[in-house]
Specification:
The chain is built from 6 helices and 6 strands; from the N terminus they run E-E-E-E-E-H-H-E-H-H-H-H. Helix 1 (63-73) packs across helix 2 (81-98), helix 1 (63-73) crosses helix 4 (121-131) and helix 3 (105-119) packs antiparallel against helix 4. The chain is elongated. With 180 residues, the protein is α+β, with helices and mostly antiparallel strands. 37% of the residues lie in helices and 17% in strands. It has helices at residues 63-73, 81-98, 105-119, 121-131, 137-144, 160-163, and strands spanning 11-18, 24-31, 37-43, 50-52, 58-59, 102-104. The protein folds into 2 domains: 11-43, no CATH class; 50-163. The longest helix has 18 residues, at 81-98. The structure holds zinc ion.
Length: 180
């Protein structure tokens, strides 16, 4: 570690202790060149992978952005903030467990879609319609059909749906939707 006083790299640790919660190690160091004293704090970096967008650019994983997208899809629906936050938490845990360095944005979208599908079909459709980037009406109707081919009924017309933008997915449209 570079000494801030004399800019040489000869420091030694003279004291090392954990903070109360055990997450941060505080170290006192001494410069062997000039005798200067410094303190460093060491903590484990949270292991969230970078998100690969559709255009190939990488960006930091941003749980706030994901929550915003979910909130927009859940506007005027009976989904609580706690349920939305739970989706994001589950997502974080899931991708941390994968231990990846990078993850495509579409994989994140799929996890959110699955969770919304269980909670609220309208929110799911809103999220999916932006995320899946439906090419035509047929694709959209295909998505509306349940696993048994039944048509899932939308309970209300909502003009706002068409103009919804999900910041975390808007430029990360995935491959063409599958035909059912
Ligand atoms: Zn020094």
């Amino acid at each position: 570690m570079k000494c801030p006083f004399c800019s040489t790299f000869n420091t030694r640790v003279i004291d090392s202790r954990l903070n109360q919660t055990g997450e941060i190690t505080r170290r006192r160091r001494e410069c062997l060149h000039c005798g200067g004293r410094l303190t460093t704090y060491e903590r484990i970096e949270e292991q969230m992978p970078a998100v690969i967008k559709k255009d190939g650019r990488r960006e930091d994983f941003n749980s706030r952005k994901i929550l915003d997208g979910i909130q927009k899809a859940c506007q005027k629906r009976e989904v609580t903030i706690a349920q939305m936050e739970q989706i994001v938490q589950d997502l974080e845990r899931k991708i941390q467990a994968m231990g990846l360095k990078e993850i495509p944005s579409r994989a994140l979208g799929q996890v959110v879609m699955k969770a919304l599908h269980r909670l609220d079909k309208v929110a799911y459709i809103r999220f999916a319609s932006v995320y899946r980037d439906f090419r035509d009406v047929e694709d959209f109707v295909a998505e509306l059909r349940g696993s048994q081919g039944e048509l899932l009924v939308l309970e209300e017309e909502d003009d706002a749906t068409e103009n919804l933008k999900f910041p975390f997915i808007e430029d990360s449209a995935p491959e063409a939707p599958k035909r059912l």
